[in-house]
Amino acid sequence: MISQTENIQESQLQSFSKLLILISFFFLGQVVGGLIAILILMPVFQIGLNDFISLINLTSPRPDLFYIIILLQGITSLVTFIGGSLFFLKKIDNKNIASLSPVPAFNPLVVLLSVSIVLASAILSGYFLQITQSIDFQQWGSLGRWITTTEENAKQLTEQLTKFDSFGAFLLAMIVIALIPAIGEELLFRGLMQSKIGNIFKNTHVAVWITAAIFSFIHFQFYGFLSRMMLGVLFGYMYVWSGNIIYPIVAHFTNNGAQVLLLYLYQQKIINYNIDNDSKISVGLAIGSLLIIVLLMILFKNLTRKKSNSLYTTF
């Protein structure tokens, strides 16, 4: 007769195996998604295979560079995050997408609360960014130089992806930078990875924090590591307490979409606020932001957790 301990160990081993497969899917998806994107874009923009090197390095003088790069990013993300997650869910977990929301009830008040939490976190996120930007990575030797180079490359890519010459470019950026990552990354990290890690450690909090750390690290933007990890923690608890993947998706979309919208409005000279300015955030403001986040998260928990025991206990 199989003991309860043996059943738990078998469940943990199975979750660990699936976690490794899921991580493999992510890296494979990057390769496959990139190749699919290149094959689609080559005939559309009449690009040679060798030309993609200068395009990826952002050194091409082409006037349509924005559209090539953002579509390359969008198609790759679509395949990697949304396609890969749905394929894993169907073929490896043998489940459908509805299984990621065991509490399907949709509450507009909770949606509004999800948006409010993310907006309230902007100040604290900026404070964390100040902390990481104050670190002199050059003193870390070769690792520090790699981090600095990676950060500079990521900054150049972000600048290229947020140069809007028309309203259509802005809408395309909202889809690629906000909508696709919100859906795809939440499916992958909160919907799939967090549950696997939770089953391995049998601890919800460990699952939320480890997943948030992986979520932040996988972006390879180290100045924003603490800020992004904080958001990952918020998204993780939203999912645990609500039992519905739609709320972290809405929160994620709000975070990315708000930044794209503010950049567009600034470039169109509709507003004077530039989110790229290095405005100093005081400790007092950061603490105030933290207190508001805590209060809103407590309210979120009280409104949702009592309805989501099915998700919470699977961890």
Helix/strand-derived class?
Answer: mainly alpha
Q: Tell me the distance between the termini.
A: 25 Å
How many helical elements? 12
Overall average pLDDT: 89
Shape: globular
The tally of domains stands at 1
The total beta strand count reads: 0
Cα-atom radius of gyration: 21 Å
Residue ranges: pLDDT <50 for 5 or more in a row?
none
Name the helicity range.
over 70%
Strand fraction: under 5%
**Main sheet specs:** none
- Topology as H/E string? HHHHHHHHHHHH
Q: Would you write up a description of this structure?
A:
The protein has about 325 residues and is mostly helical. It has twelve helices and no strands. About 75% of the residues lie in helices and about 0% in strands. The model has no long low-confidence stretch (mean pLDDT about 90). The protein has one domain (about 5-310). The chain has helices at about 5-45, 50-55, 65-90, 110-120, 120-135, 140-160, 165-200, 205-215, 225-240, 245-265, 285-305, 310.
Question: Which descriptors would you attach to this protein?
Answer:
315 residues; mainly alpha
Give the helices and strands, then pairings:
Elements: H1 4-45, H2 51-56, H3 65-91, H4 108-120, H5 122-133, H6 142-161, H7 167-201, H8 204-217, H9 225-242, H10 246-267, H11 283-304, H12 309-312
Helix pairs in contact: 1-3, 1-7, 3-7, 4-10, 4-11, 5-9, 5-11, 7-8, 7-10, 8-9, 9-10, 9-11
Overview in brief:
With 315 residues, the chain is mostly helical.
